[in-house]
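Researcher: Next entry in the queue.
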Amino acid sequence: MPHTANRSMDLATWGLLVLLGFIWGGSFFFGRIAVQHVPPMTLVLFRVALAAIALHIAFGRMPGFYQTLTSRWRALMIMGLINNAIPFTLIFIGQTQIGAGLASILNATTPVWAVLVAQVLTTDEKITAAKLIGCGLGLAGMILLIGPSALGLADSPLWAMLAAIGAAISYGFAATFGKRFKGVPPRITATGQLTASSVIMLPLAVLVDQPWTLPVPSLEVIAAILALALVSTAFAYILFFRILSVAGATSASLVTLLVPPAAIVLGILFLGETLSLTEALGLGLIALGLLSLDNRLGIRGRR
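Model: Structure for this entry, 303 residues:
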């Protein structure tokens, strides 16, 4: 039977969402540190492979674990591609030129793309007045951010910002595709997609980056990679799929509303980044859009 995928969240689910927001905010901070010394594809491989190994160690002995993984390997390969391999690579490519704060703000458009994708590909998450307004505000904030770069008036190159937006679009597809894992324990979904993305990224990193030729990174970079893999990926995806299973695709993607503040604060405190007025205004419009998507502004719509 059809189910409403954007359900109201209770206090416990909101607590998980806030925690996940701060953890994923840290991923932009750790990624900005590591990508200055490790090429993007190799960094993605380290991130997903280490996270996958950690989850296999933690959950591999549970009854039926590998039977479920093997029975769903095709869907997990797709999820690993659109929820890990593609967006992680695009974000790290973008972060070679843009800071953690700006990358996280552009990534915050994910719920907008999730709504637009769900409108086309699903029957249970159709557009409402609130979602239409939310999409408009979110897209306006995105245009405000990339506009100066498109006109050659900003320091951040346009291609780097478009890479971050491309990652958000990929996440939007993943949010809708991830609904087919309803009823599957989150630890299995997280482990499966990270294992699949490791398989995808291994040949790409070997062919493009030839990681064996790279210098050994510093302890600071190694620590950032480990935090990125174990905290901001392995643990974070368990939380994400848990929220997705109880609250739906659009509500789960609201985590991106909480990611930019964490990433911005970390970037300002430790990386010497600044937040421009344009970026602050863009973030404000996107935040209003996300609140509208979750109907927190009291906008009522009819099916």
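Model: Residues 230 and 299 are 39 Å apart (CA to CA).
Researcher: Noted, moving on.
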